[in-house]
Structures are given as C-alpha cells and as structure tokens.
Amino acid sequence: MARTAATFVCQACGAVAPKWAGRCDACGGWNTLAEEAPAAPVSGGGGLAHPRGRPSRLVGLKGTGAVRARIETGIGELDRVAGGGFVPNSGVLVGGDPGIGKSTLLLQALASLADRGERVIYVTGEEAIDQVGLRAERLGLADSPVLLAAETSVPDILATLAEGPVPAMVVIDSIQTLWSPVIEAAPGTVSQLRAGTEALLRFAKTKGSTVLFVGHVTKEGQIAGPKVIEHMVDTVLYFEGDRGHAFRILRAVKNRFGPTDEIGVFEMSDRGLLEVANPSRLFTAGCEDHGPGSAVFAGVEGTRPLLMEIQALVAASSLGTPRRAVVGFDPNRLAMLLAVLEARGGVRIGAQDVYLNVAGGLKVREPAADLAAAAALISSLTGRALPADAVFFGEIALSGAVRAVGQTEQRLKEAARLGLGQAVIAAGHAAPYPGFTVLKEIADIAELTAWISALA
Question: Higher model confidence: residue 7 or residue 391?
C-alpha cells in the first residue's frame, strides 16, 4: 500500500501546499504553513439521509415533514437575528471578543428551551462542569434542566449526542478546542477545525439538531481560523460591543434562512444579558440638550430602523499632519467626506483635527450616514447647533450631490415615533410624511453648509 504524503496547510487561510515554504502564496502570511497528516473521516456522524446521493423531489417536501418549524429560544432579540428562530438541521457559528457574552447568551437560550421541555446539551471544552454551574447559578439558571458535558474529543462528543433522544439544540464552546485522534495535528489547526466542524454538521443535518459553535476572534475581528469554517455553516453571528459600554450588538453576517445584517441589542447586567426593547431611544439618550457637533442619524440595520447619535469635534491642529480619529465609522468614508466638504462645499476643514464618534458603541456601515456625519462636522466647525428634533440621512456623492437612500418611510416613522419633528433628507421626496412639521430637502453639500451656517 502506497504511503500517503503529508501536506502543508496555512494556519491563516487554509491553503494547501505540497511542500513547506516561508510564505503562503495564497494569503501572503509568513511562517504560517504547518505540516499536517491527511485527514481521515471522523466516525460517529451518522449516514446520509439519502444514500449514494439519491435525489428527492422539491415539490411536496413541506407536506412530508422534511421542513420543520423553527426553534424559538424565547429570547426575542436572538430569535430576530436568526430570522425568526433557529432552523433544525443547521449549524450556526457565533463569534466575538473574549468576555463579550457569547457563552452567557447561549446558556440563557438553552435554559429557556430546557424549561419548555426541550432536550438541550451544552458541551464545554474550556471550562469544567462546575465552572459552568457557577455561571448558571449567578444567572439564576441553576434549576434549568440543561445537560452539561465537558469534552473536546469529536468522537466522544458524537457518542454523547447519540445517547438518548436527539437534542433540539447543542452548543459547542468552543470550536477551537475540538480535536480528533485520527488527525495528526494540534487542536485549533485548520485540519482539526475543518474535521470537527464537518463531523458535527453531519450529525446536525442527519439527526435534526441545531448545533451552535462558539468561535474566538483574532485581533482583526475575524473568526480565528480560516474562512472555510464560515463557508461550512449555515449562519454566522458576530457579537459586538465596547468594554466601556454595557450594550452588546448581535449581528448576522451570513444567514441562509433569513436576512443578513440583522441586529439584536442586549444590555449586560449582573443577571446576564437583557434584551433592549427600544434601542433607538437608548442610543439617542441625551440628544435633547446637545451642542454643536451632534446629529441624529436614522439608519436601518437589517429590517430594523434604528436612530443613533453621530458626534463630531473639529479643532485647531498643532501638528503638521492633522489628526483623524474615528470610532464606529469607516475611516475611508470620513476621508472622502472631508475631501468633498473641502472641494464642493467650500468648507476649510483639511488643516483641522477631526474626531468622529458613533455614540453607544455602535458601528455604522451604510452610506446613508454621510449626510448626518457631514452635518455634525459642519456644525462643530461653525459652532452652530443643529435642531434638537431633526434627523438626517442621505448619501453624499463625490460631486457633492446628496442622493436619496432606500427605506425612507421606515426611517421617518421611527423618528416620528421618538418625537422628532424635522427631517433633513435628499431632494426629490415631495410626498408628505405624517408627524413631521419640517421636511428639509438638501440637493448638495453646498446647500447643507449654507443652511447650517444660517442657523441661530
């Protein structure tokens, strides 16, 4: 029998090379190639539902019971991000910084399901069972019938899951601790991550469980390990938040069964993570008495309209190269806005220090925030405070024109619900919107500058 040669796998991107090299040709990383033996199949995952790839008819699948109802955890914000609940036969990857609350939230979700009679299993590879029990006691969940297991071996985990009735939901905390004895590589390597995930996903697909994997993130904010893990699972959720704030944002970046970029808002407390029922009011608290440099932006995260405060500070610089500090906003987008303000709006801001912050630890990704950010910058530079009951949204082009954005009615309805009566938007929205006394339409950045400069 011929000997199978070992391969070299990049621990950063998962690329395979026939021999070792100092630099990975795929991602450019140095000293990331590690020798790994060929992966053998991990036993215990169960057979395929249709042997030898036998196809099934799409028509009539729902009537045969092949499509089951979603599993609702009872935590509204978590179910919202998942698309209305978790789909059986699926794998979900949950990533986030250490201590952000991933394990706490998933333990609360399992406890809620267990209290309703569902069989759920929490498999920990980083803590002892007693340590998980202490956390459950602190959260007031000690009496919930959640099954706990402390194991890192993939075959042993599969054997545990196969005992008794099929669990409705399984949490693996964390995926970086999984290892299989048939693979000659350390836990956390690409081969171990791929093999462990594949075996547990095979169990989920064939048995009907929902498997949630907890994943650590790197300093760049990505799931530790190659992107191949994110491609394998059905849903990828990221836990975001600032250690200086008590609020946490759960964001869906991939979802085969629901909308992406959906968010859920939580507040960390001594009793665990609590749902925030009205995040718009939370992230705009204190805007009523704001001074120059503050603007309220009406954004849309997934299907949810959300109001947030954008703060700007423009100050004289004592440096040869003015400082640009950004929190929660794209730095490249800010550089573009400053250039447009200088070239198209006649605003002399290039030699000033500029600080831009999205209040509450949120991160704004959509271009609709351009108008609010520009208004905050001009307000800070001129010293003119914007109207306290005004909301801004619109995209700014390189020509200086203000372009309309989608879901205008949803944004305005959310602003009206919180008592805001003025809206500054792109020109072309002639239709009246109930609840607004002033609907200011801005055609370009020069008109915005003139309007703010004329404020009392």
Answer: 391
Calculate mean pLDDT across residues 347-367.
Answer: 89
Give the number of domains in the chain: 3
Query: Quick one: pLDDT at residue 201?
Result: 94
Distance separating alpha carbons of residues 237 and 232, to the nearest angstrom: 14
Same domain, 229 and 101: yes
In a domain, 44, yes or no: no
Q: Is residue 64 part of a domain?
A: no
Domain ranges, residue 257:
71-277
Of 64-68, 263-267, 346-350, 441-445, the least confident: 64-68
Position 226 pLDDT exceeds 70: no
- Asked if 29 contacts 17 with a C-beta cutoff of 8 angstroms, the reply is no
Averaged pLDDT of the chain:
84
pLDDT beyond 60 at 47: no
Domain co-membership, 387 together with 426: yes
Asked if pLDDT for residue 110 goes beyond 60, the answer is: yes
* Better-scored residue on pLDDT, 2 or 185: 185
Tokens of 451: 């309007």
Residue 302 amino acid letter: G
**Could you tell me which of 110, 134, 140, 101 has the C-alpha nearest to residue 271?**
140
- Nearest CA among 383, 385, 384, 403 for reference residue 393: 403
Q: How many CB atoms lie within 10 A of CB 315?
A: 13
**Same domain assignment for residues 342 and 425:** yes
* Amino acid at position 347, single letter: V
Please count the other Cβ atoms lying within 10 Å of the Cβ belonging to residue 142. Answer: 13
Question: Which tokens hold the place of 198?
Answer: 């594949």
Confidence check: pLDDT of 146 > 90:
yes
Summarize the confidence of residues 143-157 as an average pLDDT.
Answer: 93
DSSP 344-406: TS----TTEEEEEEEGGG----SGGGHHHHHHHHHHHHHTPPPPTTEEE--EE-TTSBEEP-S
Q: What is the mean predicted confidence (pLDDT) over 241-268?
A: 84
Those residues with Cβ within 8 angstroms of residue 132's Cβ, 6 or more apart along the chain or in another chain? 107, 122, 124, 148, 150
What's the whole-model pTM score?
0.77
Three-state DSSP state, 15: coil
DSSP state, 175? G
Cα(118)–Cα(88) distance, integer angstroms: 13
In a domain? residue 373: yes
Q: Closest Cα partner for 266 from 255, 256, 258, 274?
A: 274
- 170 and 267 part of one domain: yes
Q: Could you tell me if residue 438 is inside a domain?
A: yes
CATH number of domain containing 440: 3.30.230.10
pLDDT at 193: 84
Distances 4 to 16, 20, 37 between C-alpha atoms, Å: 15, 16, 9
